[in-house]
Each structure stands twice: as C-alpha cells, then as structure tokens.
Amino acid sequence: MNSKEDKEYEERVKRRVLILKDLIEQGKIKFAESMRDGLEESFAKARFDKNGEPDLSTIDGRIRSLALAAEHFDHRDKMKNAISLQQIQERYFSIIEGNFNHFYEIMIEKKVSPHQVANAIAYGNQSIDHLNEAIEPIIKDLEEFWEIVAESGYLHLEDDYDSIKAVFGGDLFPSNEENIASKCGIYTDTIILPCPFIRSRHMFSVWTKEQRVYYLLKHALNILQYKELALAELEKPIVAILPDKEMMDEFAYENISKLGEKDALYHAQKVFDRKFENFEELIEFGKSLDTIEKVTNEIKDPKRVLFDTEFKDTLEVQIRNQIKSDTAKAYRTDNPGIIVSMMGFGRMSVCNELLVKSTKVGGFPLIDAPTSWEYFKWKLEYDSERTYPDLDFTRMHIVKGLNGLDNTKLQWIGKIPPKGLIELRKHGAINEIREILSKGIEELVLANEFDFTSTSNKVFNNLNYAFNQHQENIKELVNKKWKIAGKDFGSWLVMGSVEIASACLGTPLYGLSTFALNQIIDAPKIKDLPKTIEKMKETDNERQNLKKSPLGLMFNYKK
C-alpha cells in the first residue's frame, strides 16, 4: 500500500483497533457468550509493536468490524461529554436574550403577545433599518453555534431511551398564543422544538423588510417564552430547542427530497385525477393552467387543495389570494397552476422531515397546526395506499379523533402553567399523575393494535372505551384537590380533541429503499410511547416492526 488513500485507511484502522482495545480494557464493551470463543481466537492472533501500534496483518475481519463499531460509539461518547444538553440550551438562550431581552421585557410589562410587539415595531412609524441590518449577523452566529453543538444535542436525546419524546413539526414554531408544553407536557417527558431562525432562514431572502423584522422579533420573543421550561434543572428537560436540518446528513436529505417529489406527484394525482410520471411533467402541466378558471376546471378533488383549514372563501378566491402570498413569492411565480400543482411538495417535504427527525431521536411527531395535520394524515394515507395498491382503504381508519360515541369532547390536562409543570417534575408528582392516567393513555394510543379491517363500529368502540377510562382517571385526579404553583389542578383541564394518526399498513416514507430506510429510520411503536418510564427493549425483530408504524399526535382545544 503506497497511495496516500491507502496509508490514510491504514491509520484509521489502527486508530479504531486502539479505541476498541481501550474500551474493552475499561469494561465498556462486553460480548455475548456465543461470540466469545471466536473473538478470543481473533484477539490471540493480534500483535502490537513496541509502541503499542497494531500490526494490521494480524488483525482479522472480525476485529476490524468490531473496531469500526467501537469508533462510532467512542465518537458519540466524546461528543456527548464535550457539552451537556443543559449547557447547549443555556448558551442558545443567552444568544437570544442578549439580543432581544429589551423587547421581551416590554412584552411582559405590557402583557401582550410576541405577534403584537413584532407587528407594532415592524409596521410602525419608526425606522427599522437597524433591526433589518442585524438579521444576517444574528442568523450567521446561530448557524455557527449550531454547527458546533447540534450533533451533541441530538446524541443526548437519541441515547435517552427512557423518555417519551415529542418532536414538534408542521410550522416554524409553536403558536405564540399558547405554550405547547402547557398543552401536552403532562403526557410527554421532553418536547423538542426547532430553532425557528434556522427553519425559516431561506425565507428571510424572500420577505420584505417589514416581514423580515416582524419574524425576527416574533421568533425571538416566542423562543424566550420557553426559557423557563428549557433551563429548569431537571433530569429530563421539559423543552429542548435544536435545529432540525443540521442533524441530517447529505445522504438523508437527498432521499427526503426525492420523497417530497414522489409525494407531491401522488398528491397532485389525487387533486387532478390524472397520473404524472415525473416532477417535470407536473410542472409543465401546472404552467399550462395559467388562469384561475383553467385550474379550477382541472381540479377533481377540491378538498385536497388545502391552503389553510380556516379559509372559508370559495376555491377561486383562495387561489387568487395565494397568487399574492409569501408562498407565491417563494416559488417566484404568479401562475395559479404552478401554485396549486406544487403545494403538495412543500407540505409533504415537511412531513418527511418531521418523520425522519422524530425517528432519529426515538420520538413521535407532535403537530399543532390543523392544516399541517391534514397533510400529515394524507402523507400516511398515501404511504399505505402505495405500499398495498390492491387493498381497499376506504373502510380503514387511518386517523381517529378521540371523542365519545355521542360526539362529546375529551377532557384532558392541557393548561398547565410553566411553573406548575416544573413543580410537578421537581417533586415527582407527575409520576403519580401518570400512574393514574397510564391505563387510559396507553389505550388511547394503541393505534397499531386496532383491527383496521373491522367495521367502523368495532374500532369506534375500542376508542370509546379508552375515552371513558381517561375521563374517569381525570375525575380521580381532580378529587385529590391538589394545588400546584398556587393553582387548583382542576383549573388546568380543557375540553377538546386528541387525534392519533398512524399508517395502518406498510412502511413510513414510501418509496425509500430498504437500505436507505435502515440508515435514517428507527421509529418507535405507538403502543410503546406512553408507558410512563419503562425502558423500551430493542430486538432485531422489534425494530423491523417499528418501521411499520409512523404516527403523530395533535392536541386541540378551543380557548
């Protein structure tokens, strides 16, 4: 071996073997009895020189394979030991607070929302040039910060197998009008939120000056509302903020991009009732629909042309409004056909990213935006249909709302103030609450245990039992008359709905090769998620089953 590449490879192998040797000596690597004889034979043949360097001619394939795995685990340990998740969060909030605390104090003093402060400043009479000029430096600082610490942050979360982790998605950040941890923090251990600056950085080049300043302030003030929860010194963080794109490598992005295109083609097929062979064909078709009338004449399923669940205007009016929207500016077009044809690409790409991010950390998607929730359900529906094209899915329950048979709303613990949630965690009261609720919660999310081919009444009865069980458990908690953070427990109850989405058949991320799937996905079973603090046991057989159960949760209540 004389080439530079060969010599570099030799050095890597030597380093790996030495790492393996150290880990074995430290007792960090142990072997099953079935492997012991073969490994002892391999290690007996291994030779080291006077400097402790391994003689590669004596290192067989068994040791080289183990050494490669050892290098991987050693890297993970070193990255985790370099900085704790708590330190990452402290540094992140110090950056945000150092730049925006003045505005945050005004918001608290005036008792207004991030939106109100951002809107008043961005669209007020005073000059905003100084704020606009600060955007690029702030985003650059955050990019550099996350480039250094993001991997460590995700490794801490990935290796926390005992936690119920919810990964927020479907929007830039949770609504500034309510705290998502207050909404569902009793049912989860850690809610992973995205850094909204990183998630929306490409939009800052498209937005007007006023929009740029508006989102700069709105993002910052919304983030600071989670400071108390993120920095509370607890064994399991209630909230952790991490960027969602830096944690995936180029290989994963390439495949996710392809998935987004495939999903967009399938969604467009539903909308227009015609098949598109590739993305170029879809774009050309969209270009030909250069008037609103042409587009609406071609749309065969108007319910799937969904811009926002709250829009109640006619489809024609909605399309006209979209031509003037930020979405049209991002696509750099005012062609109504392109806008309608491409709407699936952005939405489905978000769904795929969320599924990958969730499965990488062993969590489940948590969606707070009704429009995104609809697309997420469609994503799972499409995956099932394409995986089993010969089956009739019209009678299968991809999604169910957890309501009573008489359509009554579910009562759940959804308005816990941050101080109350922290107090519950610190004093261990949350464990008792979960113990009381555990049966109901477990039944609520046993989605992949349902017989999806049964009659709708049988499935509904299963959910109704879970609904009634949960209501009884809630009553038991209220009767305890606890006061937490100066408030009665009963004051935290809300009436609303909790929805569960699960692909009843097939694999998540339809169209991804088995090899690619194994590289980026290791999803949790729905039924494993709520088991309070029970460690999930991983086996090869179970991992294969896990990959068949993408899921999502959405908590919704009326204020």
Summarize the structure.
This protein has 559 residues and is an alpha/beta fold. The chain contains 22 helices and 10 strands.
Can you put this structure into words, describing what you see?
By secondary structure, the chain is α/β, with parallel strands linked by helices. The chain is 56% helix and 8% strand. It is built from 22 helices and 10 strands. A 4-stranded parallel sheet has the order 3-2-1-4. Strands 5, 6, 9 and 10 form a 4-stranded antiparallel sheet that branches. Helix 6 crosses helix 9. It is globular. About 15% of the residues have low confidence.
Continuous helix count: 22
Q: Largest beta sheet, briefly?
A: 4 strands, parallel
Overall morphology: globular
Q: Which spans of ≥5 residues are poorly predicted at pLDDT below 50?
A: 394-408, 438-460, 503-550
Strand segment count: 10
| Major sheet strand order | 3-2-1-4
Measured on Cα atoms, how large is the radius of gyration? Answer: 26 Å
Which structural class matches the secondary elements? alpha/beta
**Percent in helix:** 55-70%
Distance between the termini: 71 Å
The mean pLDDT is 77
Strand content: 5-15%
Present the secondary structure layout:
Layout: H1 4-25, H2 33-45, H3 61-82, H4 85-110, H5 114-122, H6 129-158, E1 165-169, H7 180-184, E2 190-194, H8 196-199, H9 209-224, H10 227-231, E3 239-242, H11 250-272, H12 279-288, H13 292-298, H14 315-323, H15 326-331, H16 336-360, E4 364-367, H17 370-387, E5 399-401, E6 410-413, H18 418-426, H19 429-444, H20 456-479, E7 483-484, E8 487-488, E9 493-502, H21 514-520, H22 540-546, E10 551-557
Parallel strand pairs: 1-2, 1-4, 2-3
Antiparallel strand pairs: 5-9, 6-9, 7-8, 9-10
Helix pairs in contact: 1-3, 3-6, 4-6, 4-9, 5-9, 6-9, 11-16, 12-16, 16-17, 19-20
